[in-house]
Design brief:
This protein is of the alpha+beta class. The protein has a single domain (about 5-79), classed as Arc Repressor Mutant, subunit A, CATH 1.10.10.1540. Helices cover about 45% and strands about 15% of the residues. The chain has four helices and four strands. The protein has helices at about 5-15, 30-35, 35-40, 45-55, and strands at about 20, 25-30, 60, 75-79. Strands 1-2-4-3 form a four-stranded antiparallel β-sheet. Strand 1 and strand 2 (about 25-30) form a beta hairpin. Helix 1 (about 5-15) crosses helix 4 (about 45-55). The protein is globular.
């Protein structure tokens, strides 16, 4: 799969699993994305796809590297 396609799929999954914040942006916690069965089947490297999307300014989140357990409560914002 190419990176652009994976980022598009990531956007769809964030919209499916997330909720709107006060600014109308869709947000989802990393732990929700990481533990979702559908996401696990789609993304071979979820963290890598998130980093690519952050680099393209499609999503925003605190920090550089997200790890399961430690960063489960980090909010990923769809820009």
């Amino acid at each position: 799969m190419n990176v652009s396609h994976e980022v598009e799929l990531l956007v769809q999954e964030i919209q499916r699993l997330g909720s709107k914040n006060d600014l109308g942006q869709t947000i989802v916690k990393f732990g929700v994305l990481f533990s979702d069965d559908r996401c696990a089947n789609i993304f071979e490297a979820l963290v890598g796809t998130l980093r690519a999307a952050k680099k393209k300014k499609i999503v925003s989140y605190e920090g550089e590297l997200l790890l399961q357990g430690v960063h489960d409560q980090v909010e990923i914002v769809l820009l």
